[in-house]
Amino acid sequence: xxxxxxxxxxxxxxxxxxxxxxxxxxxxxxxxxxxxxxxxxxxxxxxxxxxxxxxxxxxxxxxxxxxxxxxxxxxxxxxxxxxxxxxxxxxxxxxxxxxxxxxxxxxxxxxxxxxxxxxxxxxxxxxxxxxxxxxxxxxxxxxxxxxxxxxxxxxxxxxxxxxxxxxxxxxxxxxxxxxxxxxxxxxxxxxxxxxxxxxxxxxxxxxxxxxxxxxxxxxxxxxxxxxxxxxxxxxxxxxxxxxxxxxxxxxxxxxxx
Length: 257
Fold this sequence. Notes:
Elements: E1 5-9, H1 20-44, E2 54-60, E3 65-69, E4 73-79, H2 82-89, H3 94-112, H4 120-132, E5 137-146, E6 151-159, E7 164-172, E8 177-186, E9 199-203, E10 206-210, E11 216-221, H5 222-226, E12 233-234, H6 237-240, H7 249-254
Parallel strand pairs: 1-2, 2-4
Antiparallel strand pairs: 3-4, 5-6, 6-7, 7-8, 9-10, 10-11, 11-12
Helix pairs in contact: 1-4, 3-4
């Protein structure tokens, strides 16, 4: 069985012991790293040494432990002191926070390697590549050219510690940038974007982003795009609930430092 996931987590099961609000915020803030590492490791086809494809690190107030779960998971509970969490919450430097997240995973890898064969060098190399890339998690969703409108577009998934954005870049046919911006912002967790940003459809002068069932999610006017106007209309009521609005604005603010 090959590794497919590397996850850093706080709220699994009974939680970390540091409180529900802390756990929720920690998991949102760290998901961009878990997502990046998981996407990269599955490309490499690295075999695990047991019946699991996930390396799962959960921070906890309790003692550290290692176990294999029935869900194909190597689960490492990593003990973290209260003082360490206080220091983390007082970090004002963004890079220092990102390095702290990586250090937690590195401690978990080394702990697990005392009882199982863990491809430590490979995991650490992924961390270094993430650092070298500026701690960014960005990847292409779609590229398309619209000759009738004189433009070509690129859509990218941009996942940060604070939010997910579907970023649209519009260029003329000479490759000059005429507009760039987000057409969808939501919480930084796959559950809010993985299934509802799947396909691109063009009809009646509109570019439509659809979900995995081909249901329309976001609609952009090609005429607007050709003028450098970057905007979208969310046409799915459920998705609208998780876009920043007056009802959830405070939740998004809590994710920031």
